[in-house]
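Q: I'm a student working through a structural biology exercise. My instructor gave each of us a protein and asked us to get a predicted structure, then write a short paragraph describing it. Mine is 3-oxoacyl-(Acyl-carrier-protein) synthase 2. I'm not confident about reading structure output yet, so if you can add a plain explanation after the tokens, that would really help. Here is the sequence I was given:
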Amino acid sequence: MAALDAGIQIGEDVQPERVGVWIRSGIGGLAEFEEQHRRFIDKGQRRVNPFYNSYVYPGHGGRTGFY
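A: Happy to help. First, here is the predicted structure for 3-oxoacyl-(Acyl-carrier-protein) synthase 2. I'll explain a few features afterward.
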């Protein structure tokens, strides 16, 4: 789909073996997850960092590229 959007014809404009897709996630580190979980268990929900949810959201930072 990205190749079509870019107007690239795989096999004509670029060799198929030179095309790759890199997919990644912006999910935060496991250490931050564990720290906030520990705070929740020990001190309750009001002590959890209010920005924590945005640190571990897996939809951040996705990228697809052709090189």
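A: Here are two points you could use in your paragraph. Residues 2-55 form one domain. The mean pLDDT is 79. It's a good idea to check both against the output above yourself.
Q: Great, thank you!
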